[in-house]
Amino acid sequence: MNSTDTHDADDPRLDPEWESPAAVTLGKKVLETDAARGYIRASFVAGDNFVNRGGRIYGGFLAAMLDGLCGHAVRLTHQVPGTPQVTLELKTSFLGRADKGVLIGEGFVRHRGKSIAFAEAELRREDGELVAKGSATFKIGT
Description:
By secondary structure, the protein is an alpha+beta fold. Helices cover 16% and strands 40% of the residues. The protein has two helices and six strands. A six-stranded antiparallel β-sheet has the order 1-2-4-5-6-3, covered by helices on one side. Strand 1 (29-34) and strand 2 form a beta hairpin. It starts with 20 loop residues before the first helix and ends with a strand.
């Protein structure tokens, strides 16, 4: 790759189906996407290694799931695959009990400009109970 190139055609991250190692660690499985709306629905598997001393899912893992949902929703809106983005700010609200098992999340782009995007996400237990919400601001581009 030339040092002035911003994208390498052989880079697996340019594949829209590619997931980061962090997303794989979180057990992420994409269930539905809608690029036109900047929307994603995905599941996560929280195992024994995700629990805190109280036996609940550690809040940092929930925050990572929410950040991933927001980021994936924003990534869906890029016109050029592989456009870089970075989370500038993430707010997380813990609203319910999150135990080991499957969590279902949805991420939505609320506003997208040329260089900044705002997204929100929710995580629910399989029974539909809301356990956490998040909002994030992203810087788009280099």
